[in-house]
Amino acid sequence: MNELTTTRHNELIDPIVHVWGWEIPVYLFLGGLVAGMMIIAGYFFIKGRDEGHECVCYQVPLIGLFLLSLGMLALFLDLEHKAYVWRVYTTFKIKSPMSWGSWILLLVYPALLVNFLLNVPAWIGDRLAFLKIWSQKILAIKNIKRHVGKVNLVLGIMLGIYTGILLSSLGARPLWNSAILGVLFLVSGLSTASALVHMIARDRAESEMLARADNLFLTIELFVFALFFIALLSSTEVQIQSAMLLLTGPFAAVFWVFVILMGILIPLFIQNLSVSHRIKHTPVAPIMVIVGGFVLRLVLVQAGQYSHYLNAHFLK
Amino acid sequence: MARFAMVIDTKKCVGCMDCVVACKAENKVPEGFNRDWITTEARGKFPTVQMEIRTERCNHCGNPPCVHCCPTGASHVHDLGGVVLVYHDLCIGCKACLASCPYDARFIHPEGYADKCTFCIHRVEKGQDPACVSVCPTHCMYFGDLEDVHSMVSRLLAERKWYAIAPEAGTDPQLFYLV
Amino acid sequence: MDSVSRRKFLKIGGASVVLSAATQSALGRVEELAKTKSSKGLEKIPTFCDICFWKCGAIAYVEDGKLWKVEGNPLDPLSRGRLCPRGTGGIGAHYDPDRLKYPLMRKSVRGEERWNQVTWDEALTFIADKMKKIKNDYGPEAMALFSHGIGGNFIKHLFKAYGSANIGAPSFAQCRGPRDVGFNLTFGEDVASPERTDIKNAQCLVLIGSHLGENMHNTQVQEFSDALANGVSLIVVDPRVSVAAGKAKYYLPIKPGADMALLLAWMQVLVTERLYNKPYVEKYGFGFDNFAAEILPYSPEWAYPETGIEPEVIRATAREMARYQPATLIHPGRHVTWYGDDAQRSRAIALLNALMGNWGVKGGFYYPVSMDVPSYPYPEYPHSDKPKVDNPDNKFPFAHEVNTNGIRKATISGEPYPVKGWFVYATNLIHALPDEQETIRAIQNLDLLVVIDVIPAEIAGWADVVLPEAVYLERHDDLNVEWFREPFISLRQPVVEAPHDQKPNWWIAKKLADKLDLGHYFPWKDIEEYLEHRLNAAGLSYGQLKKEGIIRGEKQPIYFAEGVPDVFPTPSGKIEFYSLQLAEAGFDPVPKYTQPAPPPAGFFRLLYGRAPVHSFSRTQSNRVLMDMIGENEVWINQDIANRYGLKSGDFIRLKNQDGVISNRIKVKATERIRTDCVYMIHGFGHNSRMLKFAYQKGASDAQLITRYKTDPLMGGTAMNVNFVTFELEA
What we know:
The structure holds three protein chains of three kinds.
Chain A: E1 2-6, H1 23-46, H2 54-78, H3 97-117, H4 122-125, H5 129-139, H6 144-168, H7 180-200, H8 204-233, H9 237-247, H10 252-275, H11 284-306, H12 309-314
Helix pairs in contact in A: 1-2, 1-6, 1-7, 1-11, 2-3, 3-6, 6-7, 7-8, 7-11, 8-10, 9-10, 10-11
Chain B: E1 4-9, H1 18-26, E2 36-45, E3 48-57, H2 65-69, E4 75-77, E5 84-86, H3 96-100, E6 107-108, E7 114-115, H4 121-124, H5 131-135, E8 141-145, H6 152-159, E9 162-163, E10 175-178
Parallel strand pairs in B: 1-10
Antiparallel strand pairs in B: 1-8, 2-3, 4-5, 6-7, 9-10
Chain C: H1 3-13, H2 17-26, H3 30-38, E1 42-48, E2 57-63, E3 66-72, H4 85-88, H5 91-95, E4 104-106, E5 115-117, H6 120-138, E6 143-147, H7 153-162, E7 167-168, H8 170-187, E8 204-208, H9 218-229, E9 233-237, E10 250-252, H10 259-272, H11 278-284, E11 285-286, H12 288-295, H13 300-307, H14 311-324, E12 328-330, H15 342-356, H16 404-413, E13 421-425, H17 429-432, H18 436-444, E14 448-453, H19 458-461, E15 465-468, E16 480-482, E17 488-490, H20 505-515, H21 527-537, H22 542-548, E18 550-552, E19 575-576, H23 580-584, E20 604-609, H24 623-626, E21 633-637, H25 638-643, E22 651-656, E23 665-670, E24 677-681, H26 701-704, E25 709-710, E26 717-718, E27 723-727
């Protein structure tokens, strides 16, 4: 029996840390999604396969600009000292993932914009004629698509990993304190981006191609999860306790049902059936993947805040 | 160089919260927030109960995760004594520092910036002890420079058994508890 | 500006300090306004604290005319430059939004808390007229005063001038009275306040129910800490693992109410094993052989079933005490009105100390000293033929102060003579006296109830007239001529202005005296003239005192070894192990044990105590202190809590043996308390609606203390005789 009482009563901290609500998970999710989109688009550009993959190479960047802005809005809403937000761009802090993120985002926007300008859709180009002019100028650059592809790939990987590293650098939370989180969020970003294209691509071949890719990413994600938990469970008491928050503890139900079962296993099963043409492609599986990707961020952010060094210290 | 630290004698502390009240008055900490606090532990089964009472606050870590994670440099290590401070007008209120602190020593001030114990650096620079140390009716708190081997804090750590809280978090905490 | 428009003005303006100063200037206090305006920068003004009644020297910091913080005065021997948390949080009293702001007069039945805001002149005229009528109809003794703390001195003076000596404080019959009687009967002197305990030099310290550390009397706690640092052997007797118990070498988890059995057994061991301080007892003791014979039957084996403390532990702790004598101090406690045998139990503690030979000895009890400051040369008070009303026929022969509950009883019965008016100064009788219904019955018999206070506590809700007093940081009070280890005097002086229409008590007393045609008892123009007069008479400088807050005198001897004469003002002139005066009055000359009534099935004994950040029921509107502890909890043993399905943080209500149900209170399920009792901090559970912030936060033990046992020696009210059960539907 160990009774622990404290006289502290700080908002957002006590009785347990809950500094981040829905905003940061939304931001991390959308950031991961956009990162995934960029990597996939980058891959096709580099491979010179943008034709036949119009959706991922030319439609998605525009969606990406929109989603990323939504994510930034969520991030901004979470800031407590909003008037000072410009301060992040007065410095670069090499040890701060937040600083990295801010600057990466600053690069992602023009990259997405350039990508978008490679193929301005008519419904925009007709209204904003100058975009067409810019588009022509850019297309005149030699090997521009390859360059765009490389930039997309690099920035996408950075953005995707950063959303995970953001959490894993906060050493006080044992659940987050794992570099695997970067890979996990990257793979999840790839999977949700694939799911999105799978869902919205008009071209059957492109859609199916991305469904296959998603199946691969989902499978990899399962392995990364396994690695994540094995690493935690083979570590110290606090890490074991933090893993248990997801595996058997207060967050287990949400984690197993929404992240693993409905976010990975069931869509994997459905998509396997559909890519082997045993059933029709429907938006059901990709929506499950996307929702699962969001819940993954949500549950990791919440459970991570719950995990603590001092709990283990006190509960002995 | 100086390395400021606090040594707290749990044998003497009675948990009266004078340190907390003094901090709140000295630093005008808003109602409902604490820069320091009392923790009471009781282990065992009545009547055989082991108790420990101690005053806690920011550990002014030698390896401060709150400074590392800060995107703007608002959280920084002060020139004097390794004290971890926050520039209010650099802070964007992203709360990464709150999440990064193993001691949950930070909070968001109602005005929006991250706030925490400053070791009363404004007093220390004038040669005074922090408000909590100077008010403690049990004299259970000591503040000083660990670089100075003759300081009270250095001598106490050399003479007595002590522990730091959650050293396994790896932040090199600078609050030491005598047992 | 007339008072009505002034009130309006304040309401509109939100009554800031500046506004209040401005309106005061309109009332003709131009010079004070000038002072406020000019006060830019940091001012440090010494005064002494009033959040409890220890009177610690303090220095207030005023920043641009606004109160910033209060620190200890390093010159002060009591605080040694360090205030306790309440003193540090004293700023909250000045800024308290719920404090009394204007004089109020009742406009409906008593207790409804419906008021007319009136001017001071209206309020004081009303009071004076009533007091004249009461004097006329019943005599001046029909007015009684309840007063706590140094602030009441001028009101007391007014009462004596008026002709009534019925002046009491709950600090006697509801608190430390039995202790002082028990020690008086033994040593011929009492323990006083600040207690004359030499804690810092003790090598073995025994605390019986005293929860130093939670009880935050500054000097005591500082010395306790010194003692701990010196490696004192600490023995703590308490049904609860108090903070002190957590630091003890020996913790004795006694069955509540059996302390006397333990004390007798300890003394039996010391006497039979001949471990007591023989030379000291031989030199100073009276009736030791009779005493030794009387305590012989009380063996540790006898005490075991009573106390629950194993005989071996009783023996070991007795031997531990003997080992360090005479520097073994058995602390006499302070709030000791527990089980009805309190004066005798305190006498047993006195005797145990006597066996250690520690009275007048380092590490035991020192002889407090003070500076010689003559009192103000007032005209002689009128003589009264009537005895004090509280103790008819000297029923409680050893009560040397007025019993508040005696006044209450007389107010209800009209015997030995009627009491028709009460003045209540700075004491919340509803929470301080047991059985609040009895207090309310007494109040209903009154023609006049005046409450002077800084906050609208429950008693104010029952008043006819409520007079708002300036808090200690805004007023002068009487000079504090302290009795302590070393002689000193200290000054309370205003550091900021009262923010509304609050007045200092000296002003209230003087104005009321004028209206009662007693102005000649207040011959001074204002309190500064009074203070200067007294200091001049003592050959001291008022200017120095204003500047430094404290004037210390020459060190004087405080132990026998330093030259204090070893005389005991008892009838025998010695330490009375056997008390003939008790025997003559029909009481036990040597304390005996009476078994307390056990809790009925399903009930738990209700125990209560102090928190370091609160003083009685007077600090729950102090927002700084409420930020530390904002409600109380009921401590319930973990096993009992499990049995009732309760966990920490659950809300329940407590129901006492008479069916009285408390406010909602949080459970603290803990291993730190016995299974047969529950514990809570006293002072919470306010039901005064005027205390908006504190209203119904936590529960009041006082509300549940509907029964009390009266101490036969001195009339004190023992309150640990109530039992509660749990109402789970909160």
